[in-house]
């Protein structure tokens, strides 16, 4: 080992991203087995990366392992911090239910996917194909869709705990003066649970921080709050500051 000419170099990239890039390189060459192994390693480095989890689920589907495809997809619901990943997860379940001839459940999944208002070509194609058929999400009310999803053990939307975590991180970033990241985190939380729910959660997070005098990361509470989608203070933030309402 003393005469080993090799050196370790810091590539300044997270290991999960490196293995994810390696997986995509393998996919382009048609080497799906090594692509799956690379994605498994990427997920071990970052279990919360739902993009890698969904990519691996797709490869399992190609390999014919539908059980693992669905299991990986299901794991996205509790971890997803981006609306686009939840959209993909609900689309996977919609296709799975359709393959079983359970068209009402497929419609409920399409309705759930559409709620996130993500621009996704696969979602648009699925909605176009479903229009006027038994799997048309417009044939169900929100309550009916939610009942069907809950009966299958599926969520009806995003994990609120993830939205809270995003807002807590936004609070810490704002306290450190990083308003760009604070705004990004706040918008991601809004995209997960909707604007009104995000404002309510943001108010709760700020109230808890003010009562303790510190943010979740141990920083003193700042008068500056995470921005909303337009980069301005939210109503909840203004209230906490003692301004506005």
Summarize the structure.
With 245 residues, the protein is mostly helical. It has helices at 15-28, 32-45, 50-62, 66-79, 83-99, 103-115, 121-130, 142-151, 160-175, 179-193, 195-212, 235-241.
Shape estimate: flat
Give the termini distance in whole angstroms. Answer: 68 Å
The helix count comes to 12
Strand residues, percent? under 5%
Helix content: 55-70%
Low-confidence sequence ranges: 229-245
> Main sheet?
none
Tally of strands? 0
Alpha carbon gyration radius:
21 Å
**Quick check: average pLDDT?**
87
**SS-based class:** mainly alpha
User: What is the string of helix and strand elements?
Assistant: HHHHHHHHHHHH
Key features of this structure:
single chain, 245 residues, mainly alpha, 0% strand, flat, disordered C terminus
Describe the structure.
The chain is an all-alpha fold and 245 residues long. It has helices spanning 15-28, 32-45, 50-62, 66-79, 83-99, 103-115, 121-130, 142-151, 160-175, 179-193, 195-212, 235-241. It is flat. The N and C termini lie far apart (68 Å).
Task: Give a topology summary.
Elements: H1 15-28, H2 32-45, H3 50-62, H4 66-79, H5 83-99, H6 103-115, H7 121-130, H8 142-151, H9 160-175, H10 179-193, H11 195-212, H12 235-241
Helix pairs in contact: 1-2, 2-3, 3-4, 4-5, 5-6, 6-7, 6-8, 9-10, 9-11, 10-11, 11-12
């Amino acid at each position: 080992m003393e005469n080993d000419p090799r050196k370790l170099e810091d590539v300044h990239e997270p290991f999960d991203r490196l293995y994810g890039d390696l997986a995509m390189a393998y996919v382009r060459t048609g080497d799906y087995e090594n692509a799956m192994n690379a994605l498994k390693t990427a997920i071990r480095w970052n279990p919360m990366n739902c993009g890698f989890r969904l990519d691996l689920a797709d490869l399992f589907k190609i390999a014919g392992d539908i059980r693992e495809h669905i299991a990986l997809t299901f794991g996205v619901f509790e971890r997803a911090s981006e609306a686009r990943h939840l959209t993909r997860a609900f689309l996977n379940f919609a296709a799975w239910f359709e393959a079983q001839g359970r068209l009402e459940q497929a419609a409920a999944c399409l309705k759930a996917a559409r709620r996130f208002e993500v621009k996704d070509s696969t979602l648009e194609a699925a909605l176009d194909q479903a229009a006027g058929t038994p799997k048309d999400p417009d044939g169900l009310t929100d309550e009916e869709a939610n009942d069907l999803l809950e009966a299958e053990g599926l969520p009806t939307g995003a994990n609120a705990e993830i939205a809270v975590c995003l807002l807590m991180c936004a609070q810490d970033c704002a306290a450190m003066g990083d308003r760009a990241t604070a705004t990004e985190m706040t918008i991601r939380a809004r995209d997960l649970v909707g604007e009104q729910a995000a404002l309510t959660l943001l108010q709760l997070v700020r109230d808890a921080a003010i009562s303790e005098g510190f943010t979740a990361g141990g920083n003193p509470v700042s008068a500056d709050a995470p921005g909303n989608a337009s980069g301005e203070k939210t109503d909840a933030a203004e209230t906490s500051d003692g301004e506005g309402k």
